[in-house]
Amino acid sequence: MSLAVHTAARPDFTVDLWWIPRAVILGLLAFAIFGPLMNLLLWTVAERWYFPHTLPLEYGFSYWARVFSPRGVAMESLANSIVVAGLTVIVAMALAVPAGYALARLKLPFRALILLAFLIPQAFPSLPVYVNIARLFYQIGLNGTVTGVVLVHVTHGLVYAVWIATAAFSAVDVELEEAARSMGAGAMRTFRDVTLPLAAPGLLASAIFVFLESLDEFTGSYFIGAPDVNTLPLLLYTASAGGNYQVASITALLLLIPSVAFMLIVERFLRSDVLSKVGH
Amino acid sequence: MSKNGFLGIEGITVGYGRTPVLNALDLSIRQGEFVALLGSSGCGKTTLLRAIAGFVKPSAGSIRVDGRDVSRLPPDKRGMALVFQSYALWPHMTVAQNIGYGPRLRGMARADIVRRVDELQELLGLAGLGQRKPAALSGGQRQRVALGRALAVDPAILLLDEPLSNLDARIRLKVRHDISALQKRLGITAVHVTHDREEAMVMADRIVIMNAGGIAQQGAPEEVFNRPSSPFVAAFMGAENMLTLPGALRNARIVIEAGSTNARAVLPLDGRLLQDGPFEIRFRAEGAELLDGHLPPAETTDALELFGHVEAASYPGGTWRHAVRVGDDILLVDAALPFAPGQPVRIRIPARNLFLFHSQADVTRPHTGSLHDGRKADVLETSEA
Of A106-115, A207-216, A249-258, B103-112, which gets the smallest average pLDDT? Predict the structure, then answer.
């Protein structure tokens, strides 16, 4: 009672005091997240910027023009990245939809082990694995081809595709399928009319994950693709290794935009009932 | 018997793992008949329905529809429609699409589908809701959409899996009537699974009471209600009051000698299959009368009279319900007027409301010889005294 009176008398004072540490922590957190991003944004429009100046000396869009010029490498890399990511999504989903449905519905032995098996490509250090894949692909003529890069990206992205697809199919109530069977629909028809539309948001989310993984993938692309199949991360690498921070930053921004945009979509589509079933 | 039925189930056995859920069950259903499968949870009634629908594979036995063996057919080829307890409406389709799905599968012309859907919506009181998604409907409306979807395919057999259990009590009473009226009008053969005795009584032509994977008794509602063939059925049909008294048969009449809690009674056998021994006596609270207990006990010939005193009275509506202590048992008896707690009373159960069976002790422990003989000796002593 007395406490209530006390705080009622001086409400502003107590509130202000408490906001100081919170504001400091929030500010530090924001700086940790957005500081590097601001630096990146500044570099994309910096014409001249060198030590010890805190801000660019000259601003302009000349590097944008250079990157997006018809003869520029960026456009080719962007096209490559999108083609590879698109094909990766198609191949990965072609495998993940049947695999996810089987894992969600059928009483398979070692179901947990099968799910875990898709994690294996992530479990080992990627460098030695990709070096060996590169050697193998070189022998069978897949090195430096889009097919080769796509295959590497598929093995890498399949864990997301299969896990999320399994969760998406698990979230579809079996009785909804049985109702369709009872109405006279065959197994395939039921899958097409009931299961697939209901699992679609989850499947879309898994496709987006695969797309983003492929867009971002560096190590595999470097060993299998370079220098014939140049993707955006490879361009980013060569640009920043060559000290061309403007081109590197513009490339990084190109990679960042679809990631953020798609993440917002995924966040909308991945419902909690699907999410709760991932990996189960 | 199962040969002339429209839906014939012969020797169906279903087991999940090692425990059998259905045990060599036979059932025959006539065309146009409304059969209720009644039982408590876990008795196998839903499994039987799902086996008929084709979602559960029986390990033995056959299911015939109109003489044709459908046991090996997938659910979509059986010409049956199942209404699920959860309704299982497709959330991504509108009401009209849900109802029109079956006709669409059958390649019906678009205009015919629209007409059929409109007809069913009209019939089920869903007019104007065609463009809504199931999520935007009330429970009762969803239930009717589920029913409409099943009826849209003109099923030879309509299977209902507790379709009313998710409805409010008040809506349920109306829907019960609606469904059975519709079934009669359309002449559909229906199998209805429920654990609600009253629902089964009101809706069905025949009640099949299931217990532990088999049929405990089947017959018309009034038959299973008034002539239960086993203590289980009697208890399930509401005769929860139970006591055990020694009895004997004399010249095709049942004689129950006077005891500490009962007067001597000589009752007509009335087709009951009984032999000398302790009887399990069951009756309903509403099947007995409560009388003032101050009169001296007299022999009765058309009713059994028990003595006890009132422990408590409550008013559930209509009549007063009394908990009466008779010996070690507490029995529930209805009366129009309340008796005060502690008052001595007589419970008078007319012979037609009295269900007599061999005592469960005899049935469940047939091989414990000494106890069995001992009880028999007891009975003889009392009947000769």
Answer: A106-115
Residue A27: count of CB within 10 angstroms of its CB: 10
Q: Please tell me the distance in Å from B376's CA to the nearest CA on chain A.
A: 55
| Residue among A176, A178, A184 whose CB faces B105 most closely | A184
Question: Which domains, and CATH codes, for chain A?
Answer: 2-60 (no CATH), 73-275 (1.10.3720.10)
Q: What is the pLDDT of residue B222?
A: 93
- Choose the closest CB to A183 out of B74, B91, B105: B105
Q: Do A180 and B101 touch (CB under 8 A)?
A: yes
* Set of chain A residues whose Cβ sits within 8 Å of the Cβ of B74: 181, 186-187
Query: Regarding the domain with residue range B239-384, which homologous superfamily does it belong to in the CATH classification?
Result: Nucleic acid-binding proteins (2.40.50.140)
How many other C-beta atoms are found inside a 10 Å radius of the C-beta of residue A268? Answer: 10
DSSP state of A47: E
Q: Where are the domains of chain B?
A: 7-227, 239-384
Burial class (CB in 10 A: 0-12, 13-18, 19+), A19: exposed
pLDDT category at A12 given cuts 50, 70, 90 is low
Homologous superfamily of domain range B7-227: P-loop containing nucleotide triphosphate hydrolases (3.40.50.300)
SS3 string of chain B?
CCCCCCEEEEEEEEEECCEEEEEEEEEEECCCCEEEEECCCCCCHHHHHHHHHCCCCCCEEEEEECCEECCCCCHHHCCEEEECCCCCCCCCCCHHHHHHHHHHHCCCCHHHHHHHHHHHHHHCCCCCCCCCCHHHCCHHHHHHHHHHHHHCCCCCEEEEECCCCCCCHHHHHHHHHHHHHHHHHHCCEEEEEECCHHHHHHHCCEEEEEECCEEEEEECHHHHHHCCCCHHHHHHCCCCEEEEEEEEEECCEEEECCCCCECCEEEECCCCCCCCEEEEEEECHHHCEEEECCCCCCCECCEEEEEEEEEEEEEEECEEEEEEEECCEEEEEEECCCCCCCCEEEEEEEHHHCEEEECHHHHHCCCCHHHHHHHHHHHHHHHHC
The answer to whether residue A182 neighbours chain B at the CB level (below 8 Å) is yes
pLDDT of A44 reads 84
Question: B277-283 and B241-250 as β-strands: parallel, antiparallel, unpaired?
Answer: antiparallel
- For residue A70, whether the previous peptide bond is cis, meaning omega lies within 30 degrees of 0, is no
Q: Residue B378 above 60 pLDDT?
A: no
Mean pLDDT score, A193-198: 94
